[in-house]
Design goal:
single chain, 113 residues, alpha+beta, Cysteine Rich Protein, four-stranded mixed beta sheet, 4 helices, globular
């Protein structure tokens, strides 16, 4: 249980620290939200899963395609992120509430042995 809690806490802290750093540097973070059935987002370059803060660039106006990047790949492309819009999928308050209410439920397979 402690491993799961530590992992969740680490992700939560990373999201908060990155959000605060972006705002402190003058980068606007725009609310985007996320629907329940929306698939996970992945970086267009390194293919890592991108959680909560999406770095999006409009690469092709004619096709209306928007490429998602992780923070690392976005910074490699544009050090000050000038070509990127940052979209937030979850409110920090909601993520904190989920963390605070998290409980691990044992799986059926582990309880039957």
């Amino acid at each position: 249980m402690q491993v799961y809690m530590y992992c969740l806490l680490k992700v939560l802290k990373q999201c908060q620290a990155l959000r605060e750093a972006l705002l402190a540097s003058g980068k606007e973070v725009l609310w985007h939200g996320r629907s329940k059935k929306e698939p996970a987002s992945y970086c267009n370059i390194c293919e890592v899963e991108v959680f909560n803060l999406l770095f999006v660039t409009n690469e092709s106006n004619s096709k209306k395609t928007y490429e998602i990047h992780c923070h690392d790949c976005a910074q490699k492309s544009s050090r000050n992120l000038e070509n990127f819009v940052v979209l937030e999928q979850y409110k920090m308050e909601d993520l904190i509430q989920i963390y605070d209410q998290f409980t691990l439920v044992p799986s059926l397979s582990s309880s039957s042995s």
